[in-house]
Amino acid sequence: MKTIDSRIADYDLDDLAPAGYHLVLRIGFAFPQYQRNTLPQEWVDLYTRQGLVIFDPIMRWVFDNSGCTRWSAISNGDDRKVMRTAASFGLNYGAAISVVHHDPPGLRSFGSFARSDREFNDHELETLSSAVGEMHQALTPARALTKAEIDALEMLAAGLMLKEIAHQLSISESAVKLRLNNARSKLSARTNTQAVGQAKAHGWI
């Protein structure tokens, strides 16, 4: 199975967005399942330090819409001059992509892609939309977890030890371990902590 990094390479995202990009895959209430940011570090530092995310018209657009658009077409107000400041770091032109699927509901993937030299053309917008959509789908688990597996992960996330989980579920510790092993396998997670994180990202716990 291809990794997200190999899919990024297949789509030549570094060439399509030579000024950098911010890619966020399958974000729910809090943390995304995957994130990559190649925007200039000086801009990222300033953006973070000044808390510009809550003023950024691009971020408002990706959470209010699905589809694709050029930055120049986003009509949300920009009272804090976020876009003008971004341009001073070479982020003059850009594209915003937002993908929402209902598997499970509420998970969104988005990308903000930048160039310094020109607007993105229609073909490039289509390519970026396909890339974000494909990567969103690629992170969908092949098999959903059972209720028993979700219960075990939920108790683990609450800080219970294996012995405590077994007691609460009236099963053996071996049975708890089996449920957690199955959950890790389905989620392609190496550790229980990773499995818990992915289950949270999918909105299952």
List keywords for this structure.
205 residues, alpha+beta, five-stranded antiparallel β-sheet, 46% helix
Query: Treating each run of at least 4 consecutive H or I residues as one helix, how many helices?
Result: 10
Could you tell me how far the N terminus lies from the C terminus, measured between alpha carbons in angstroms? Answer: 26 Å
**H/E topology pattern:** HHEEHHEHEEHHHHH
Average predicted local confidence, pLDDT: 91
What is the percentage of strand-forming residues? 15-25%
Number of strands: 5
Query: Low-confidence parts lasting 5 or more residues at pLDDT below 50?
Result: none
Give the strand line-up of the largest sheet. Answer: 2-1-5-4-3
- Rg, alpha carbons: 20 Å
Query: Helix fraction?
Result: 40-55%
For the sheet with most strands, the description reads:
5 strands, antiparallel
